[in-house]
Write a structure and sequence with these properties.
2 domains; single chain; Lipocalin; Mago nashi protein; 9-stranded antiparallel beta sheet
Length: 248
């Protein structure tokens, strides 16, 4: 009889553990992704932009990078996000409301409202030309233009003695990828002031021409609007990996 009771007990225990694990996984899957703070200043050079949940890991989003919140590993118990902060203390984010598009957390007694990044997609944003200047009078120097048809022209100066020119056309897949990144850029809301404070030896200037408007952002190496970064780095990577067409 005792053996049967023990088997029953352990069976129930295993079922509860599996059930808890499934609930944990489901809740984490719903949180997965980028959540931006509901505030106008998130389009400026202010740092605290929101949270990024990547499977079992939680990050704070800054213009400079994703930074682990404490040890980064979190659990969800009774609608409370739990993880160890940098002082090895248990940090709690209480989930007050969570839908596919919005998230309200209670953090240290203060309410933090966030929205899913999918809401920032603006299909009406259409770029006609993107221009990038990196380095200016400092090597390495890059001058790159990309138009809406996918035509790229680039000049690359490694040193004063060597200038490399490249001219080519993106395939439709790459062009669509950059176009999608641009539609997520919130360029029409982004503050252009405050990105070039300080100097680190590798200045950049980006000009976006779109919807009969233009926006210029001047930055230094480690200071760039979060939503602009994937566009910049994608174009730079394509150009740097492209074989030389013309060399002088």
């Amino acid at each position: 009889m005792k053996t049967k009771q023990l088997i029953l007990y352990f069976s129930i225990l295993v079922i509860n553990i599996l059930l808890f694990s499934c609930i944990q996984k489901e809740k984490k899957n719903k949180l997965d992704g980028v959540w931006f703070t509901d505030a106008e200043w998130i389009y400026s050079s202010q740092s605290d932009l929101g949270l990024y949940f990547d499977k079992d890991t939680i990050y704070s989003i800054y213009n400079e990078a994703h930074i682990l919140d404490g040890d980064g590993i979190f659990q969800i118990i009774n609608d409370t996000i739990l993880f160890k902060n940098h002082k090895e203390q248990t940090q709690k984010y209480i989930i007050k409301k969570h839908t596919n598009d919005s998230l309200i957390l209670l953090i240290n007694g203060e309410e933090k409202r966030l929205h899913n990044e999918r809401l920032e997609f603006n299909d009406n944003l259409k770029f006609s030309k993107i221009s990038i200047i990196v380095g200016e009078d400092i090597d390495p120097y890059y001058f790159i233009t990309l138009d809406s048809l996918g035509n790229i022209f680039a000049e690359e100066r490694i040193d004063k003695e060597k200038m490399i020119k490249k001219q080519f056309k993106l395939n439709s897949s790459e062009l669509n990828r950059i176009d999608s990144l641009f539609k997520f850029s919130c360029i029409d809301k982004t503050d252009t002031v405050g990105w070039d404070s300080g100097y680190d030896g590798w200045p950049k200037s980006m000009k976006f021409e779109y919807n009969n408007k233009s926006t210029v952002i001047r930055t230094i190496h480690f200071s760039m609007p979060y939503r602009i970064q994937p566009i910049f780095y994608r174009i730079m990577l394509i150009v740097m990996n492209k074989n030389t067409i013309d060399e002088k």
